[in-house]
Amino acid sequence: MADWDIKKLRILRTLHELGTVTATAEALHLTPSAVSQQLAGLAKALGVPLLEAHGRRVRLTDAAHLVLRHADVVFAQLERADAELLGYLRGEAGRVRIGAFSTAIPALVVPAVQELRRTHPGLAVAVREAEAEAAYELLAEGSVDLALSLAAHAPTPRDPKFSRLSLLADPLDVALPAGHPLAAEPGLRLADLAGEPWIFGSSGPWSQITTAACENAGFVPEQAHAAADWNAIWAMVAAGMGVALVPRMARPGVGAPARGTGGGPGVVLRVLHADQPRRHVVAAARRGSEGAPGLSRVLAALQQVAAARAGARTAPADGDAPPDGPPTVQSI
Fold this sequence. Notes:
Layout: H1 6-18, H2 21-28, H3 32-46, E1 51-54, E2 57-60, H4 62-90, E3 94-100, H5 104-119, E4 123-129, H6 132-141, E5 146-150, E6 162-177, E7 197-200, H7 205-216, E8 222-226, H8 230-238, E9 244-247, E10 267-270, E11 278-286, H9 293-311, E12 329-331
Parallel strand pairs: 3-4, 3-5, 7-8, 10-12
Antiparallel strand pairs: 1-2, 5-11, 6-9, 6-10, 6-11
Helix pairs in contact: 1-2, 1-3, 1-4, 2-3, 5-9
C-alpha cells in the first residue's frame, strides 16, 4: 500500500490552489526547496510522478490530480473526525470563530450571538469582520470556522473544500432624497431612475451588485459619486447628491447608522415591488466540520435570525431628524 502522508498531501493541495512553489512555500511557512523535497518524497512514496516542467514553472500531472481527488475526501473525513472529537471532549462548551462582511454582523451575527449567550452560555463566539475573499482565505487556513458572504463571491457548491448554506435573500431598496420628485411616485420601478446620478462603490461587490441590478432593469447607472461606507452614502443621499441602492440589512438601526449634517434633508427608502433586486447571503464552513456541535448551533442560530428577518416587515420609523442628528428615513 502507498504511503499517504497527510502533511505532504496538504502541500500538494496548496500547490494546486496557489500555482507556484514559491507561493506555496510562503503560505505554509516553508522554503521552496523544502516544498520541492516534500513533494519529491510524496511522489516516491506513491510511486507516481506528481510534477512536470512547464517552462520555468512546474505543473501537476494527471496522477497528481487523481491523488488530489482522493485527498479532498481524506481531508473532509479528518474534519469530521475532529468535529466528533470536539463534541466528545467539549459537549456544550467550545469556541466558534466567524468571519463576516460588515452589514451581516449587526443584522445576522449579533442577534445570533445574543440568542446563543442566552441558550448556550458555555459556547463562545468570536467575530471577525472580513469581506468575501479574505473570509475564505481565513476559513481555508483555519483562522475562522465559519464565513458569511454574498453568494456571488462564495465558492461554488461543488467546491470540495467547503460546505455552504443559504441564509437569506436580502432585498435591495432605493434611497432617494426626501424632496426628490419620484420620492412618492406610485409603483416606482428601478428603470424610472435611469437618468439619475448614482452613488455606489468604485469597485468591489457593491459596485457589481448595483451595476448588475440596474443593467437587469435596462440601463447602465451613471456614477456621480463613489463610496463604500454606508455613513457616507446616507449623508450624500440626504444632501441630494444622488440616489443609491440599499440592502435592507444596511438600513439605519440595522446596519451602519445613517448620519447626516445638522438640518439637512432626509432620505426616503422606496421598496421596488415590481422588479426588486436581491442579494443572497450564504454561510460556508470547511467541508466535514459543519457537524461540530458548536458550529452547528451557531449555524442554527443564524438560520433562525435570517428566517425572522425574511418574515418581518423591517420598515424604518418615520420621523424628523434632530439638529446634528440622522436624516429623516421613511419607507414607502
